[in-house]
Amino acid sequence: MATRSDLWTTLTEPLIRQNPVTLQILGICSALAVTTSLATALTMSVSLTVVLTLSAVIISLIRRHIPDTIRLIVQIVIVASLVIVIDQVLQAFFAEISRALSIYVSLITTNCLVLGRTEAYARHHAPVPAAVDAFGNGLGYSLILLVIGGMRELFGRGQLFGWQALPLADAGGWFTPLSLMLLAPSAFFLLGGLVWAIRAMLPEQAEAPEHEPPADVRAAE
Amino acid sequence: MTDLWALFLSAAFVDNMPLTLFLGLCTFLALSKRPESAIGLGIAMTGVLGVTVPLNWLIYQGVLAPGAWAWAGLPELDLSYLALIAFIGVIAATVQVLEMLLDRFFPAIHSAFGVFLPLLTVQCAILAGSLFMVDRAYTLAESAVFGLGSGLGFAVAVVMLGALRTRLAYADLPAGLRGLGIAFVLTGLMSLGFASFAQMAVSQ
User: What domain of life does the UniProt record list for this protein's source (chain B) (predicted)?
Assistant: First the structure.
């Protein structure tokens, strides 16, 4: 039986230490495409967290009844159905944001993060820990998305959630927007920098070098 | 004819899947450590995208699109919300069939890059190919060209990144940047290069 502190660890571990995006390379595809502004990043984070948590609960509830051979298909169908529901809800109530996200909401289906968590955790655990784990991973993902989305919107347009945080030079202020921040390359650079920052804080996560220089070279240095 | 060629170039370079649309990045980064595995992944991607996009076009136009059931007296039936599940099913089935065919007739090819095929079932770039096909209302010929073009664009990008990362294997990087971090920075630099192809599309 999981105690309260176990659940707390399950929830907080994926936030930074076991972050799904920066450590496990899961779900990057959608993480970068939707981060040109905070509003789309937030919508995407909420949608993903909802889908992830619900699918983890459903799969964990029926985990004893899924035959091992067809489990991937079962999981994909469950995730895809949830995504269709979310997509329809967004189209109905948030038409503008839904257009901005275009196909990336549907792509939550093939987000490796969702399948990764259901496959690795929900399939072997009771519904409550499974839900907590999924929710924690969703939050970890959201954290990265919001940090990158915030930086791109702030430096690319001088705005936060559409509110003018830095006065633009065109409008008599001092800030000249960096349009590179709104283009694809900046997302890669920012995420690379973020990975570097996290690994600088937690050195045990750094990857071992593939090739050690020969001993005599090192002795000479 | 020239239109199809332009579409091919734009799918392969201007709208390059991993570098400008951020699609399929998970496998893009995971399998680009060696050029050999990158080439295998590129070939598999081109094959699967080239087959599944036109196949999904047939399914969508024949069964799911609004008005597809008009011949059966159901002109109002609109099943397009089922597209997602249908596409995933078609992709999973295609990948399975491709794997079996390769195993039976070309065992050498199968042993070379067969391991990448099952991975492609849950690859966002493959699903995105079909979703874009619906979104942009392509014809059958266009969707085949689009599928092949984006597959080839992915292959070019992943082989280039694989080659770059091999060169960096001996570089003395800061510990935190090793592996994933530097891969992101490299991808960003490549993406910067591919951004110049956008100018090519404008000047046409």
Answer: Bacteria
Q: Which residues of B fall within a CB distance of 8 Å from A83?
A: 84
Q: Note whether B122 contacts A187, CB cutoff 8 Å.
A: no
| Cα end-to-end span (Å), chain A | 55
Closest residue in B to A211 (Cα–Cα): B170
Q: What are the φ and ψ backbone dihedral angles of B136, each rounded to 5 degrees? A: -100, 5
Measured N-to-C along each axis, helices B83-105 and B124-135 cross at an angle, to the nearest 10 degrees, of 130
DSSP state at residue A172:
T
- What are the extents of the domains in chain A? 4-205
Residue A9: Cβ-neighbour burial (10 angstroms; 0-12, 13-18, 19+): middle
Contact indicator for B148, B129 with CB cutoff of 8 Å: no
What digits encode the pLDDT tens for the residues A41-68?
888 888 889 999 999 999 888 888 888 7
ipTM confidence score:
0.79
pTM of the model: 0.81
Three-state SS letters, B53-97: HHHHHHHHHHHHCCCCCHHHCCCCCCCHHHHHHHHHHHHHHHHHH
B49 close to B152: Cβ distance less than 8 angstroms:
no
